[in-house]
Amino acid sequence: MTTIKDMFDELPPDRRRRLTDIAVEVSLPRATRLFEEGRRADRFWIIRSGQVALDQHVPGRRAAIVETLGRDELLGWSWLFPPYLWHLGAETVGPVEAVEFDARAVRDLCESDPVLGRAVYRYVAKTVADRLHGTRTRLLDLYGPQGSGLDP
Residue 31 CB: number of other CB atoms within 10 A? Predict the structure, then answer.
């Protein structure tokens, strides 16, 4: 699992400070809808405590929960890639404490500071890769052929 500590470890203290200067601590009650699939992605969060469920719209049915995120995990990466639209929805499972970032401000920092930008992009890319790997593993568990591995 990739955590925010991984990214901060790559940054010199002055770069770390530039990022934390634009961070806002937020407290979110249970069942807070943070974003909706297809809407503008204008912020993101680092979860400090609690959990957030990511869900996907299913026509004619209730949204399906595809993943649950927790402590020190990045909530939201759609803010970094045009057209800046959420790919999923998100709702708090219980009370959540998080650090919120304005997406445009972080993108501007990344553009103006290549060292900071490289660390942020690397962190987000690792997060996306880790989640893709987890999704593939879950899909294989659900739909993979039984007995396709080596016999003990």
Answer: 10
Contacts of 19 (CB under 8 A, 6+ apart): 11, 101, 106, 109, 116, 120
Cα distance between residue 83 and residue 18, in whole Å = 25
Residues 98 and 54 sit within 8 Å (Cβ to Cβ): no
How far from 13 is each of 7, 8, 78, 126, CA to CA, in Å?
A: 12, 9, 27, 22
Contact 30, 86 (CB under 8 A): no
- Inter-helix orientation angle 13-20/103-112, to 10°: 150
Is the N-terminal amide bond of 83 cis, ω within 30° of 0? yes
pLDDT in tens, 99-121: 999 999 999 999 999 999 998 99
pLDDT value for 1: 63
d(C-alpha 93, C-alpha 131), whole Å: 19
